[in-house]
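ingest -> validate -> predict -> emit
validate: passed (alphabet ok, no gaps, 68 aa)
predict: started
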Amino acid sequence: MPLPKRRHSHQRTALRRTHYTTELPEVTEERKVGGESFHLNHNATNDGYYKGRRLPGFRDKRPKPAAE
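emit:
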């Protein structure tokens, strides 16, 4: 594997890294009434839906019965 012949300066490294940027995640509005108002793209909603289909393994959030 080739190795650099000389060491790169801090300035040269910093100039290269100036182009590394992060982007904000894409957020879309929720179409369902009464649900969360926004959700991340390419992720399931809190209700367990992805691309309009219910995913297996998600359960409804029901209050636990009070023990007497």
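The chain has one helix and four strands.
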